[in-house]
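Hello Y.,

Per our agreement to keep a running log of every chain we model this quarter, I'm adding this entry. I've kept the format consistent with earlier entries: sequence first, then predicted structure.
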Amino acid sequence: MTVLDSRPDVPGDPQGRIINPMEGPEALISEAGVSMAPVEDLGAGRGPFWLDDWLRANATDVLAWRRHIHAHPELSRHEFATTELVVTLLRSVGLKPWVLPGGTGVVCDIGSGERCVALRADMDALPLTEATGLPYSSTIEGAAHMCGHDAHTAILLGAARALAGAPELPGRVRLIFQPAEEVMPGGALDMIAAGALDGVERIYGLHVDPRLEVGSVGMRVGALTSAADLIELRLTSPGGHTSRPHLTADLVHALGTVITGLPALLSRRVDPRSGTVLVWGAVHAGQAANAVPQDGVLRGTLRTADHEVWTALEPLVASSVESLLAPTGVGFHLDYRRGVPPVVSDQDSTALMRAGVEAALGEGAVAPTEQSSGGEDFGWYLEHVQGAFARLGVWPGHPAPQSDIHRPTFVLDERALLCGVRTLVHTALTTLA
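Predicted structure for the entry above:
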């Protein structure tokens, strides 16, 4: 079964054949859909036999699902068509998915028994305009899968349908297709509130990583991503003439005091080993060169890899801002928005996932990976159950460039989709064994 729509606007020869720069071989696009070119399965022959058989017969469908989702991106909390596609594909193999009350997000169990392990994928796109030139580029202006969530969804769909065809499973595998990862505090909270973690003993997830070569999976024990909070500081002043700053409260000077003073102060109040960093992204105040403005705003992000530090940051920021602004006479309102917690993979879950990766792709497949200051709402799941998160290599290798995520030009090597399917299947089996 293929679901990629025909694209009559795609450039190619008179027969409609196009070349996918990430594959090389031809793929035929026609009114009936698409006949996908074969893609190499880097884990072929590693079993179990039913997984090898399923991938041999259905690998091109996994690619087609990803391309369809890629061409039809949906922004956070609007993933209605993607949700419908997921539900349809799960029901087609006899599974019984259920949709969250908001209409986006899917939960589905495979197998039976008391023990349950969860596998999670996110489904939303970014508010960007794609510039890859791929034949299955986004058809939606201002929305694009430049973070790889289309791949995550297709990988979990592949793992689900492969597991559904297994002769037997040693327990239950719960599929979590999550909306709204790209907005804070994240759709993971919606899934948790709806009961997606009820009865789950461990949870696992993958995120594409263009810095790792396809066929490798980056793992580490401990913090993989950081907590990410938003700070908005609004300042107020009576205003006045710049020739008489002593008769008013100099709002712009106060902004500068906070811009330089708060990061410096936090660096002396927080353990430097925590990876805590405050970076300002926007500052606005005034219009005229000779007028002290009456109001201004400062916005930034505050990140840390340490969970204990994260819980202490909000009151620390509030007291620090107050002390910095007290001498200036400027009024202020601090809006501190907690975002997502750090993703911290525990040792046991990481060991189980490592065993799954090695069974799926070989002993050399596990690669070291660095802790990132980026945020990921998978951390909310780990507030409730143990689990591990890993990075899936999607870089074709030299001489191909490394195209970073969240850029309009991000592309991935589609061989990684099959690596992801095998990794999730083996991780679930290893955990339930």
